[in-house]
Design a protein that fits this description.
This protein has 211 residues and is mainly alpha-helical. 73% of the residues lie in helices and 0% in strands.
């Protein structure tokens, strides 16, 4: 299992001993990360009818109830486990509003790449070669939004997911490995391969990315 930071490990220790304030701090520490994940993943057709804050609160409430079971087994590092619960609530919201009951929401979301335009633009901002914040650079990133969406659809499902987890959800390689059930080495390989494939499609628009 991936090691937690010392601060999180200490909160986990105290929370596992029944300290209610530690349980609250543990969940609160990850609120913004979960909010970002929900904003990235919530289908834009659903976002107009459902409040992401409600999804977040439902996920945190469910997580609080499941903490004792987590402490007994610790099947994943804490944030990937917490994210899994939030993902289930996003999936339920999609089924409720989109009636997507015949196929797994996970596979449907990946296949259609139903990311909000803002999320695609955020991904473009992270991937496009640095022109910093000049007006011309911002315009170029906006113009590349459609091309990047099309290029992402040409990637393999797992390779594309690594980029979304890395650049939009801002997970560490170790957390991505836990979420996808693969090794950190495989994450690095998929990350490098996906970036190279995007460069092949988009030419020189992409610069060197952070590791």
């Amino acid at each position: 299992m991936t090691a937690e930071s010392p601060e999180i490990e200490e909160l986990l220790r105290r929370a596992s001993q029944g300290e209610r304030s530690a349980c609250g701090q543990l969940l609160e520490r990850h609120r913004q990360r979960l909010r970002r994940m929900i904003a990235v993943r919530l289908d834009r057709r659903v976002a107009g009818r459902a409040d992401a804050s409600d999804v977040l609160q439902e996920a945190l409430t469910a997580a609080a109830q499941q903490l004792p079971d987590y402490f007994r087994h610790r099947p994943l590092p804490f944030y990937p486990w917490l994210r899994q619960i939030a993902w289930q609530h996003v999936a339920q919201m999609h089924r409720r509003h989109l009636h997507a009951r015949k196929r797994s929401v996970l596979r449907e979301e990946h296949a259609k790449l139903e990311l909000a335009d803002g999320s695609v633009l955020d991904l473009a901002n992270r991937l496009v070669a640095s022109g910093r914040n000049s007006p011309s650079a911002r315009l170029r990133r906006v113009e590349l939004q459609g091309r990047i969406r099309a290029a992402l659809l040409q990637l393999g499902e797992r390779d594309r997911e690594v980029l979304i987890l890395r650049y939009l959800e801002e997970l560490t390689p170790q957390e991505i490995a836990a979420v996808l059930g693969i090794s950190p080495g495989a994450v690095s390989m998929r990350h490098a391969r996906a970036l190279q494939q995007l460069r092949n499609v988009l030419g020189k628009a992409l610069g060197e990315s952070e590791p």
